[in-house]
Design goal:
heterodimer; A: 152 residues; alpha+beta; Ubiquitin-like (UB roll); DNA polymerase, domain 1; 2 domains; B: 275 residues; Uridine Diphospho-n-acetylenolpyruvylglucosamine Reductase, domain 3; Enolase-like, domain 1; 3 domains; five-stranded antiparallel beta sheet
Chain lengths: 152, 275
């Protein structure tokens, strides 16, 4: 599979979770494990351009796929507009949900470049946060798109 | 406790023919695995008893949506996201769209399939009540051939279906005749997104004739089409007591039987009052 633009070969069991392959085999620990059952979104990554919960993807189904993780979102040293907005608006507190929130937000802005707050709420409905109360997260996403920065 | 991952086998058949051959060679040995949004949860919880799975996710013949004069047909692997992207559902089958929209978050909608939702056979699933009121038909295929089954005959008991061990659900077909009917879909859960339903009711009503269709989730061992309630609506007698009789709800971790009965009746009344 291709992870963040680099071809990676991993030998693992077919039902091993993509989440474990990323974290343990490839040491990409930015992707977090929250619930392990598709409820919390902390493990969100993009697979072939679509947002997925990596805890629910068996390794065999990721064979040959293009994966983007949180480590592949920034452009080198320059943060993605969504990441910068999370910093500016206080959208991150403890940080466990943040990588998944950013992935879901980036995916949302790819589909809907100028979302309403309702779109943001729907786009992030699969991501749970226990710290922020969500408002600053929604604000971060809205600010990121006001800057027009989906390719930033 | 987590499952022991090396004890699970998964194979990717290269064609539908190969998949059917594997299913037929040793019936029951292999089970289809689509988007994994149900099965991987069981795996993580250590409750996935079956050990050998056929990865059918990449079989293109099980994908795609076709629209012809009388029917809209969905490949079994149609995802919720694909349903939401097709205008014909919003226009003619809005209850299926509503069900797709409230199923999980975006990540689940990208991976979960309508066929998987049907075959997984949870009485609490979100799309079955909508498919039941649209009188969906299922195409089940095997090396022996293909057969079409009315969806309301598919579920025969708790998590039991008429799908034979050598069969795959290939397509789901909806007849295009109810787009002008009044339509209602409401799922009641703990919160709006990401919650398994306590009660889920789908209903259709042809105002001209009084013909109605009612189906309810999470209130019986199977997703339930309520034929007697429909008859009561047609006959202009009170359908609410009939609905209560038709249901067989239980007390469980998500709700109580009494609450489920009351809420299902309220939802039906809400729909009928709003007509």
């Amino acid at each position: 599979m291709t992870v963040n633009g680099t071809v990676q070969t991993v030998e693992t069991w077919p039902m091993m979770r993509l989440l474990d392959v990323l974290r343990e085999d490839l040491r990409l620990t930015g992707t977090k494990e929250g619930c392990g059952e598709g409820e919390c979104g902390a493990c969100s990554v993009m697979m072939n351009g679509k947002l997925v919960n990596s805890c629910l993807v068996p390794a065999l189904q990721a064979e040959g796929a293009e994966i983007t993780t949180i480590e592949g979102i920034a452009g080198g040293e320059r943060l993605h507009a969504v990441q910068q907005a999370f910093l500016d608006c206080g959208g991150a507190q403890c940080g466990i949900c943040t990588p998944g929130m950013v992935m879901a937000a980036v995916s949302l802005l790819q589909r809907i470049p100028a979302p309403t707050e309702e779109d943001v709420r729907n786009g992030l409905a699969g991501n749970l946060c226990r710290c922020t109360g969500y408002l600053r997260i929604f604000e971060s996403v809205l600010r990121a798109c006001r800057r027009g920065g989906i390719h930033a | 406790m987590r499952s022991f991952i090396p004890s699970y086998e998964m194979r990717t058949p290269k064609s539908l023919a190969e998949a059917l051959e594997l299913l037929a060679a040793n019936p029951g040995a292999w089970r289809p695995f689509a988007g994994g949004t149900d099965l991987m949860v069981l795996l993580e919880a250590g409750k996935l008893d079956h050990r050998r799975f056929l990865n059918i996710w990449n079989l293109p013949v099980l994908r795609g949506i076709t629209v012809v004069a009388d029917f809209v047909t969905l490949g079994a692997l149609t995802t919720y996201t694909e349903v939401l992207a097709q205008e014909v559902f919003e226009r003619e089958f809005p209850l299926l769209t509503a069900a797709a929209r409230i199923t999980g978050g975006i990540a689940t909608q990208n991976r979960g399939t309508i066929g998987g939702n049907v075959v997984n056979a949870s009485p609490a699933a979100d799309t079955p009540p909508a498919l039941l009121v649209y009188e969906a038909e299922l195409e089940l295929i095997s090396q022996r051939g293909s057969r079409w089954l009315p969806y309301h005959e598919f579920h025969v008991g708790y998590r039991q279906t008429r799908l034979q061990p050598d069969e795959l659900l290939a397509r789901i077909r909806l007849r295009r005749r109810t787009s002008r009917w009044s339509q209602y879909y409401r799922k009641v859960g703990t919160r709006r997104a990401q919650a398994i339903s306590k009660v889920c009711l789908a209903a259709l009503l042809d105002r001209k004739t009084g013909e109605a269709r009612v189906a309810v989730g999470s209130v019986a061992p199977v997703p339930l089409r309520c034929f007697r309630t429909e008859r009561a609506i047609l006959d202009r007698s009170d359908p609410l007591p009939v609905l209560a009789q038709e249901m067989a709800p239980i007390d469980d971790m998500r709700s109580t039987a009494a609450y489920r009965t009351r809420v299902a009746q309220n939802l039906l009344r809400d729909f009928l009052d709003g007509r």
